[in-house]
Give the backbone structure.
Amino acid sequence: MVATVDSLAISVAGFEDLSAIEPAWWRLLNDQQELDCRGSITELRSLQNAERVRRFTETRVRQGRFVIARLEGELVGISTIAPDGFLLESQVPVWEVADVWVEPHARRRGIATAMVRQCEHECRMRGAVEVRLTVYAGNDAALGLYRHLGYDVSSHTLGRKLEE
């Protein structure tokens, strides 16, 4: 299914999208550095991590688990879906929506909303009866979006830096 509104197209990514997805993934990681600094973006771009990103994006595309947004043909948003791995087997199939990201110049135009809705649809088509997502506590814009879309807090993840 492809959702199209004016010049916005939301779809599951195909292999023809890989060349645009990988650089967008790096921009997502760069943006996340402001919320979760586990190293500089230069460190993240090591050869080892570059290969991991390449394998990750290729695998997600092959599995049909990358949802992308194109505005006037330009890739402006990415997101991923995956089955929740918390329980090995469950009577309630739960999927996760993750990595919802929109290019800065295209934000505040409903693109993230459209991608999340498409992700929900794709999860439902794969048998999910519930979707969950994780968001950084300091990402107020995303928190507002997800609350507006009807998401409620179901858990809290806490972190603490260990002293050496």
